[in-house]
Design brief:
The protein is an all-beta fold. Helices cover 0% and strands 45% of the residues. The strands form 2 sheets. Strands 2, 4, 5, 6, 9, 10 and 11 form a 7-stranded mixed beta sheet that branches. A 4-stranded antiparallel beta sheet has the order 1-3-8-7, with no helix packed on it.
């Protein structure tokens, strides 16, 4: 069982920045592909970004590409999502996710199928 704990959400004005963190205690963290999803009110959960086990491959949704950056620190068992130039449409609950079965070196969105989820952290962007 993998426990994922998100932090860093909050309220920010449009154009501002936030950094989300996801801590995943345990020795197996460095073997997992990690990612972030989000769910806005009344909408389905959607993919935001993912990163392979080493941090050498990343993938982003087109809506956040160029504004968000996913990274990881395997020594700290933590994955990050740096969010810049935030827009009101980025308002959502953000979920950290882990795919323990992902075997590819390159992250491909359609292959990233998480089997562990965090509890979510609220991000609200005001206009």
């Amino acid at each position: 069982q993998v426990q994922l704990v998100e932090s860093g959400g909050g309220l920010v004005q449009a154009g501002g920045s936030l950094r989300l963190s996801c801590a995943a205690p345990g020795r197996t963290f460095s073997k997992y592909a990690m990612g972030w999803f989000r769910q806005a009110p009344g909408k389905e959960r959607e993919f935001v970004a993912a990163i392979n086990w080493s941090g050498g491959s990343t993938n982003y949704a087109s809506s956040v590409k160029g504004r968000f950056t996913i990274s990881r620190d395997n020594a700290k068992n933590t994955v990050y999502l740096q969010m810049n130039s935030l827009k009101p449409e980025d308002t959502a609950v953000y979920y950290c996710a882990a795919d323990s079965r992902y075997s590819g070196g390159i992250i491909v969105e359609r292959w990233f199928r998480p089997d562990y989820w965090g509890q979510g952290t609220q991000v609200t962007v005001s206009s």
